Amino acid sequence: MIETRKIKIIMLTLVAIITVIAGIQLYQHRHYDVPIVAGPGVTKVGKLSDYYEGIKGTIADTNVFFMEGEEEGGSMLVIANTHSNEIVAGLTAFMIVENAVVEKGRLIVIPQFNNSGGRNTRAGDGYPLYFDIDTPWGSKTFRMGNRDASPLDQWPDPDVYVHYPEGQLLSYMDVRNTNRTWPGRSDGPLMEQVCYAAMELIRNENIDATLDVHGAETLFPVTNCIVAPDKSMRIATMTSLTVKSKEGFDFHVEPSPSGMRGLSHREIGDYSDSMPFLVEAPLPFLDQPTGPKTMDLLLTGRDPFLLSLSKKGMLFVPYDEEGWPIERRAGQHTSVVLELMNQMARQYPEKEIVVSGIPKYKDVVENGIGYYLTDPSTVDESRIYYE
Ligand SMILES: [Zn+2]
How far is residue 359's CA from residue 31's CA, in Å, rounded to a whole number? Predict the structure, then answer.
């Protein structure tokens, strides 16, 4: 009897110790802020709550960076970290905000769209909590977030998520997924409010093109591509053909299915005048049959299991011993951003955006991402924001 009690006490103590250690790690991760430098082209920094007050003071509020040209032209909104486990998106946004200078038109960037998701993790899948990017001034540590907002911020989940306003039945978890809660509503769950605020931004700022930046599994057909509805299809197709011929990388086009609701590439187009695009980079880390989910896999995309699957023709992207380095993925995204602007100007000359400073595919592959990140200790404090 006494023996059993002893074992119970030891077990309880062990569980308590593990809970405390894990709790401290998760608390620190949630509160770790990544500095972002407002580059030479940033003319204004606002908040998403400027467009819908309801999210002010909540963890859902997030920074909005404006790069405005002297001359009037088109406007593009770039949304990153809708899914913060797709780290290529945030890195692309950082490179744009810290380097882009707009001469004509406007470029608006939200680097951390689902801020709650960016401070969440998927413990059961053993995600790393952080990852490091080498820069000429040392390594910079970023948080790795999750696909969904934290239940700490939006709870409880329904049994089934009934999409607003279409009424389509979606997975219960998608109520915390800001790529299922578009176009949102002001009195819905917090993530619907986030999308509602962004819709208000798109409508009030007359955004011509909205780009939602992602990454996706190599075993999933919608990867390494631009997803576009009919209204954006011509520009997406021309962009895909042009980057292939001029810059040498494949980036195919997928049509946005009209029957799948809640997605940015569907609802933004249906509920505003903006042309939506969603870009997916290959993301081997998210594939299920891989080795350990390490920072190395996250950054290099190199995995022996995926390599053998690729030899059997089961991947939807080219794949060899080199994997899919993060530089290639981020470089494709920056080049696609620039080409989308070019193609928009070709089709609608009054919507031209003239921008310099954003590195292209070749530059990022050659120099690395860190080369385009600014050392926060070298700039005035007023230029530093936190994501
Ligand atoms: Zn995604």
Answer: 31
Print the domain residue range for 144.
32-386
- State the DSSP H helix or E strand holding residue 381, giving kind and residue range, or none if neither: none
pTM, entire model? 0.97
d(CA 172, CA 177): 10
- Find the 223 Cα to ligand 1 centroid distance in Å: 10
Q: How far is the CA of 137 from the centre of ligand 1 (A)?
A: 30
Q: Which residues neighbour 193 within 8 Å (Cβ) at sequence distance 6 or greater? A: 52, 54, 55, 60, 184, 185, 186, 187
The pLDDT value given to residue 155: 96
Measure the CA–CA gap between 374 and 377, rounded to whole angstroms: 9
As a whole number of angstroms, the distance between CA 337 and CA 239 comes to 9
- Gap from CA of 215 to ligand 1 centroid (Å): 6
How far does the centroid of ligand 1 lie from the alpha carbon of residue 183, in Å? 17
Q: Beta-carbon neighbour count of residue 377 at 10 Å?
A: 10
**CATH number of the domain encompassing residue 287:** 3.40.630.10
pLDDT in tens, 325-351: 999 999 999 999 999 999 999 999 999
Q: Distance, CA 179 to ligand 1 centroid (Å)?
A: 7
283 Cα–ligand 1 center, Å = 10
Any domain includes 16: no
19 Cα to the center of ligand 1, angstroms: 30
What's the 18 CA to ligand 1 centre distance in angstroms?
31
C-alpha of residue 148 to centroid of ligand 1, in Å: 10
**pLDDT digits 0-9 by tens, 280-310:** 999 999 999 999 999 999 999 999 999 999 9
* 164 CA distance to ligand 1 middle (Å): 20
CA of 307 to the centre of ligand 1 (A): 23
Domains identified in the chain, total number: 1
- Asked if the structure places residue 285 within a domain, the reply is yes
Confirm whether 24 is domain-assigned. no
Q: Residues 250-263: pLDDT tens digits?
A: 999 999 999 999 99
Using the mean position of ligand 1's atoms as its centre, give its distance from the Cα of residue 282 in Å: 11
DSSP state letter for 174: G
In a domain, 185, yes or no: yes
d(CA 336, CA 352): 16
